[in-house]
Amino acid sequence: MADLGNFALHLGLFLSSYAVLVDMLGAWRLEHSLMKSGRNATVACLACFTLAMIILWVLLFKCDFAVKYVAEHTSRALPMGYRFSALWAGAAGSLLLWVWLQSGFVAFVFCRKTQKHEKFAAGARVISNLVFVFFLIVLIFDRNPFNLSMITPDDGAGLNPLLQHPAMVLHPPTLFIGYAAFAVPFAWAFSYLKYDRAGNPSPLLPQIRNWILSAWMFLTIGIVLGAWWAYEELGWGGYWAWDPVENSSLMPWLTATALLHCSRTFNRKNSIATWLLTMSIVTYSLCVFGTFLTRYGLVSSVHAFPDPGLGILFLVLLAHIAIISIALFIRSFIQRKDELKTSLTSGLKFIVFFNWLMVLLTFVVLVGTLFPFLSGLVSSRQITLKPEYFTKITAPGGIILLFIIGICPYMLRKSIGVGRRTIGAVIAAVIILAAWAVTRRIAVVCFVTCAFAAINLAADLFERYTKKSKLNLRWLGARIVHIGVVLVFMGMAGSGGYNLEALQALKPGEDMTVGEYKFIYEKLRSEQGANFTAIAADVSVYKISEREERLIAKLSPSKAYYNESKNPTSEVAINRSLGRDVYLALDAIDRDREIARLKVLINPLINWIWIGSTISILGTILVLIALYNKKQSITEIETRINNE
Amino acid sequence: MVDLIKTKTIIRILVGIIVIGGGIGYFMYQAMQSSWSYYYSVDDFVANRTAVQSHSLRIAGIVKEGTILRDAKKMNLSFSLTGSDNQILVDYEGTVPDNFAEGGEVVVEGRLNADGIFKADLLMTKCESKYKAKVK
Fold first, then answer.
1. Given a cut of 80, is residue A278 above it in pLDDT?
2. Pick from B4, B74, B135: which is nearest to A337 by CB?
3. Closest Cα in chain A to B96
4. Residue A445 · residue A402 · CB < 8 Å
5. CA distance A160 to A155
6. CA dist., res. A34 & res. A30, Å (int)
7. d(CA A585, CA B82)
8. What ipTM was estimated for this complex?
9. pTM of the predicted protein model
10. pLDDT band at residue A348, thresholds of 50, 70 and 90?
11. Minimal CA separation from B115 to chain A, in Å
12. How many Å is the Cα radius of gyration of chain A?
C-alpha cells in the first residue's frame, strides 16, 4: 500500500512536469487542445495527491509500522483523533499536506471547465506546476512519507505528549492552508504580469481578493494557535520567543497584511497594482523560504530540525521565482510606463505608507533571524540576536501601526476641515511622544496609542451609524478586525510591560508573595491517568488588599510522566480573568522532602490577546460573507475608489 | 533604459532609499547593541577561550552522560557540555526545561567565570520533532 502511495507521488511529479510544458506551449501558440491537456493534467495531479493523502491516513489508522513515518509518529495506544493529526506531525507528512492543499486550491481557481480567460489560467498553471515540481522532488527523494523502515517495530514511538493538545492539532493545518492558499494570488500575479493588457484587464480579480483574505485569515489563526499553545503547554509563561521558526510564519503574515490592504483598493492604473503584485509574490516566497529555513537548518533554533537533505532545492526554487518575476516586472514596466499615471487619493497614500511599514518590519525580522548565518559569512564568529532586538524595533513599529489605525478614518473624515484634521493629528502625535518622554515605558505609549485608535474607530462607527441606516456588512467586518487588533496590542502591552515573575522553592505550608497575590503551598499529591502518572502541588492563591487576604483560587500545577516518555511534561495551572492571568508552573520537585519549586507569573491583560484575535477572525469572516454574497465586478470597485 | 525613468524620479528613489535605509539601519543598530551574543559550538569555544571571555555568549553542545548534578534544594544545576573533542563545565540557576536530559542538545547563554566554569543564565533545549521515546 505504501508503494501505491509512492507511485502516486511519482505520477504527480510526472504530470506536473508535463503540465508545465504543455501549458507553456499552449499559451504561447494559443492552442486550446494543449491548454486543455494542461488543465486536465493539473486536475489529475490533484487526484494523485488525494490518493496519496488517503493512503497515508489509512496507514496511520492501521498502525502499519513497516512505514517509517507511521512508526515515528504513532503508537498502538494513541487515540484515534491524534492518529488523524499525526499526518502532519512530521516534515514528510506536512509537506504532502501542503502540496495536496495547494494542488486543490490551484485546480479550483485555474482549472475550470468554462474558462473565460484560458491563456491567463494557463499562465498561472505554468508557475504553479513549476513550484509543484520542486516540492515533489524534495518530497519523493528526501522526505518521503512512504519510506519503509528496515525492521518493522512492534509498536511505534507515539506522539509527543506536548503535541497532544487541540491547538497543536489545528496549528499546522491552518498554517498550511494559509501557505497553500497564497499560492493562488502568487500564480495569478505571474500571469497578470505576462498577460494583462489595457483592453482585457485584471481577470479573476474578485476571486483573488477573496483568496487573499481567506489565506490571511488562516495564517492568522495558525499563528495565534501556536502562540496560545506555547502559553498553555510549555510552562515558561510566554507566547512568543522570536525563534526562527516562529519568525518564518510571522514574516509572510506581515507582507500578507500589506497584500490584503492592497487588494481592497486595487486599481490597475496606479502604484497599488504594483504593490499588489509584488506582495503576492513576496508573501508566497516567504512561506517557501520559511520552510527552507526550518528544514534546512540554516539557522539553529530550539525548534529547528536541521536535516539538510534536498532542502536546498527550495532555495533554488526561490531563485527561479526571483529571476522570472524580476524579468516580468521589467518587461511590464517598459511596456506600460505611459499607463501608470493615475495619482493616489489620500486614503491610498495611507495604504502605501502602511505597506512600507510592513515591508520594513519584515526586513528587520528577516535580518534578525538570519543574523547568525550572515555574521558567520563575514566573520569567524556567529552572532545571535536575542529577543530584545526584535522587540525594540517591532514595539515602536506596532505603535506606528496603531497610530495609523486611528489616524486613517480620522483623516478621511470629510465633516471636519483639512486644516483642523491635520492639527488634530499632530496634537495626537505630540501626546503620544510626550507619553514616551515622560514615562519612558513603551507599554504606556502603547496604551495611549490604543486609546487614540479606539476613540477614532468608535467615532467612525458612530458617524456611519448616524449617517446611513443601511448596514454595510463588509465595512463593519473590516472595522471589527481593526478593533480586534487594538485589543491584541492592549493585551501585549499589559502582559509585556507589567508582568511579574518569581521562582521559589517552598516546603509544605510555606508561602510566597508576588505583587498583590500570596501563594501558600500545601502539599504534593499523586494523580493517575490512563497513560500517565502525575505529581501535583496544591497551592492556595490569595489576593492581598489592605483589610484582608481573600482566597481566590486553588491551583494545582503538576508534572506528568507519560508511560511512553522519559521526560516529564509540565501542566500549568492558570487562574484567568479579563484583568490578569495568575500563572503557576511546577518547576522542580524534591519528593523526599516534599519541596516544590513554584514558578509564578502574573500577566496583566493577557487574555485580551486571545479575545482580540478571535474578534479579528470573526470580523474577517463577516467580510468574507459579505464578499461572497455580493460577487462584485471590477467596475464596481473602481467606481467606489473614485468616489472615496 | 535611463531615459525611461525621469531624473526626478531617480532622485526621489535614491533619497527615499537613503532616508528610509538610514533610519531603519540606525534603529536596527541601536536594537542590536545590547541584544547580541556570540554563538559557538563547544569545540569552537574551547579553541577561542581567551578571546571571548568578556561578552555574553551562547554555546551549543550535548549534555554529557553521567554529569548532571542537581543541588539538594534544586535551585542549582551543573553538568558537562560536550562537543566532539572538548567539554566545558556549566553551572546554571533557574528553570530547567522538562526535556533536559543526558545526551540532549542544549544551548546555554552566559559568561565564563574566573575559575573556567561557564555560568549560565539561560538554558534552552531542542524541541523534538520526532518523538524519540522508548521504542520497543
1. yes
2. B4
3. A587
4. no
5. 15
6. 8
7. 30
8. 0.82
9. 0.91
10. confident
11. 24
12. 27
Query: Three-class SS of residue A553?
Result: strand
DSSP A200: B
Question: Residue A271 and residue A400: Cα distance in Å, rounded?
Answer: 23
| Structure letter (DSSP) for residue A578 | S
Q: What count of residues does chain A have? A: 644
Q: Categorize the per-residue pLDDT at A198 as very low, low, confident or very high, splitting at 50, 70 and 90.
A: low
Q: What is the DSSP string of chain B?
A: -GGGS-HHHHHHHHHHHHHHHHHHHHHHHHHHHTTEEEEEEHHHHHHTGGGGSSS-EEEEEEEPTT--EE-TTSSEEEEEEE-SS-EEEEEEESPPPTT--TT-EEEEEEEE-TTS-EEEEEEEEPPPSS------
Round to whole Å and give the CA distance between B131 and B136: 14
Identify all chain B residues contacting A91, using CB atoms and an 8 Å cutoff: 129
B74 touching A (Cβ < 8 Å) = yes
Determine phi and psi for A639, rounding to 5 degrees.
-65, -40
Report the DSSP beta bridge partners of residue A219.
none
Searching chain B, which residue's CA lies closest to the CA of residue A507?
Answer: B73
Closest alpha carbon to A73 in A57, A55, A58, A60? A60
- C-alpha distances in angstroms, A174 versus A223, A298, A572, B10? 9, 25, 25, 43
Name the strand (E) or helix (H) holding A87. Answer: none
At residue A20, does pLDDT exceed 70?
A: yes
Residue A31, pLDDT > 90, answer no
d(CA B16, CA B73): 59
Which of A198-212, A331-345, A527-541, A607-621 ranks highest by mean pLDDT?
Answer: A607-621
Contacts of B100 in chain A (CB under 8 A): 567
Please indicate whether, in this complex, the C-beta atoms of A595 and B4 are within 8 angstroms of each other: no
Nearest to B129 among A305, A568, A569 (CB): A305
Q: In the prediction, which pLDDT does B135 show?
A: 35
